[in-house]
Amino acid sequence: MRRDAMLFLALGAFLLAVAAWQQIPTTLFMLVTASAYALIALGLNVQWGYAGLFNFGVMGFLMVGGVAVTFVSYPINEAFWASDGPFMLFKALLAAVFGGVLVYLATNSQRFGIKGKLRTFLMVMAWAIAYIVYRSQIDPAARLIEAEAGFVGGLGLPVVLGWIFGGVLAGAIAYVVGRICLGLRTDYLAIATIGISEIIRALVKNMDWFTRGTLTVSPLPWPTPSPTDIVAAGLEDATMSTILARAGFLSLTVLLIAVIFYFLQKAYEGPWGRMMRAIRDNNISASAIGKNVTKRELEVFILGSILMGIGGAILASFSQILDPSGYQPINHTFIVWVMIIVGGAGNNYGALFGGVFIYIVWTISEPASVILFDIISDFSEGVGIGAIPNIESRALQMRVFVLGLVITFALRYFPQGVIPERVRTEK
Amino acid sequence: MMNELIFFFNKVIVSGAVLGSVYALGAVGVTLIFGILRFAHFAHGDMMTLGAFVAFVLAAIASAMGISTFWPTGFIVLPFAMLITAGLALGIDRTFYQPLREKGVKSVTLLIASIGVTLMIQGLIRLFGGVQTRSFFENEPKELFRFDMSWLGSSRSINISEPQMLLIAVTVIAVVALHFFLTRSRLGKGMRAMADNPSLALVSGINTNQVVRATWIIAGSLAAMAGTMLALDVILKPDLAFNIVLPIFAAAIVGGLGQAYGAIAGGFLIGFAETMSVFNWAIMLRPFRDNLPEWLPNDLSIVPTEYKLTVAFVILVVVLLVRPTGIFKGASS
């Protein structure tokens, strides 16, 4: 326990050093993003640390959160509501429901005595018909909306509602993904979840009528007063208003994390957490003593994904832009894994520590590499080899290398993480 | 009618065979590593990119030395690039995977380590090579073969570029060579034995360390081959193969992880599935256009072109659900 406190103190000192070097507004910016990542890391810790579920599709859930908050909080697009768009989308929804019923009937056709090859054939046909019917409705709707209104716009509701909706939507998708994939072994589960997150990315990127695709949606509103609001309220100093606005946003995310952390910790220490660890460590014996392994795993998968969805929504709101091409597996999936592994899987404090620490390391490794390269460049010029060209753009790439180095180093030398899981034993 | 068939051939068969060859070469490496070392080697895509960059550097050196032949320079240096990449693959295994294996970690840990390796290779490539795209054909022309099909009554010709033809040719050679290696040589038989049952292979006196090394050499050189040929066909860029590592996994899983022949079949299956699903089938109906009903839309492709890669993921997920061991019953450790 004392070691953990020391680690967090060291993290605080590190943050102060970063603040002294990178100025306070930049540090606050990093901290807000880091807090969103800490929330996402907590979500992954619930899935991987509590239950041993191998989710490599974090990016997909972050995108879902981003899309959800955009839809809820972005101002209303009058042109869309005035057009035929809503009606046509309603028809497409009906088509989707029809298709869903068809697939459901075909899947459950053994209840009507249809078995074997005929059932397989019916299922394939049902999927094909559902797809064709849905496409026949959604395609004209998408064309009309893109031509007449650009995209559907938002609902103009409060941002926090959008965060909640992000969590709900991510949870709903996690339910479907979990029902499909959770039976798979770890390696297969990893690849399947990556595949699904790539499917989500392709959809979000290309559903221009809903997300504007590569055109991006901005500016998304903040839940707290933004710098311009503060300037409008009468504070002239630009730096001060940025600091105040970011501090306001940060206090909201920190409050959110504190509440979520409290409940996660309660759940972890309680019977539910012990049951999850039992399932993780030996699912056969857990099911032998009457635990419904599949159901519990689905439950924990949804819980973790809800946290990821909220985190993704916070990220999108804070950066004020929904940019589907900005989502990359490295920045949004693998980095979260590094956070968990370095911090310590199975320990919420570890996830929190890893989330903040790795995000800061990831961000400052760029300016740090610029300094490093400048030194090397000066040296190589001195010996006559010549300077390093394009130092700025090269330094950016160092982040990825540093991330890879950290992950392999951590796996080899401290596989349990810096704040490892502690199993409470009776004394 | 002939025109449409030739169009179909160009768009689906040729592109599908090209794509399938790349996937197959990648998937063989993935599947061999899975069979022998029991983990999903995620860095395989970046090993392909690495091989392509090695080939590019060698080609640049070769043309600086004034070597110019009938063949594209990038193709001439391919054997050397394969050798170097195989060496790099061995080095990567030594430094990153072997220590973990010796600690007896779970396969999941190795998978995560391979992601770390992916990131490092990507970072290094971009650090030294920058993010811009490069072409192997800056100083020499990229030849395009046109096969006149007028004897079949078609005004269109079958088009296939030189790199595409070479790619298909080297894939066939590699597959045949691999087949003879696996079935005839002592080491190849040892590899198959170890994929089937590692402990039995060990007690039967098979040198497992040698088998592991052979696996990395084969996987590394095939990755370099696939990467270089892909870069010759399209363009060389830092994320050349990172984007296709998932279709490659899809191919390996469809074929059954651990099954070399399955991986080849899976690669072509995924390749053809992708080209067929974005092909506009309405073109095939054009000869009958006078008899077609009015309501038939002009675009009959199964998915829009921008979802081409998604097809592989959908196949992947469906295969994982319906038949997780793949069509050729793979290892399920």
Automatic annotation (TrEMBL), chain A:
It is found in: Cell membrane. GO terms for molecular function: branched-chain amino acid transmembrane transporter activity. The chain crosses the membrane at residues 29-46, 53-76, 88-106, 118-134, 154-176, 188-204, 243-264, 300-322, 334-362, 395-414. It is a multi-pass membrane protein. Keywords: Cell membrane, Membrane, Transmembrane, Transmembrane helix. GO terms for cellular component: plasma membrane. This is Branched-chain amino acid transport system permease protein. It comes from Maritalea mobilis.
Automatic annotation (TrEMBL), chain B:
This is Branched-chain amino acid transport system permease protein. It is found in: Cell membrane. It holds the Pfam family BPD_transp_2. Its main location: membrane. Keywords: Amino-acid transport, Cell inner membrane, Cell membrane, Membrane, Transmembrane, Transmembrane helix, Transport. InterPro entries: ABC_transp_permease, BCAA_transport_permease. The chain crosses the membrane at residues 12-37, 49-70, 76-96, 108-129, 164-182, 214-234, 240-257, 264-285, 305-322. The keyword Transmembrane helix applies. GO terms for biological process: D-alanine transmembrane transport; L-alanine transport; L-isoleucine import across plasma membrane. One of its GO terms (molecular function) is L-isoleucine transmembrane transporter activity. One of its GO terms (cellular component) is plasma membrane. It comes from the Bacteria.
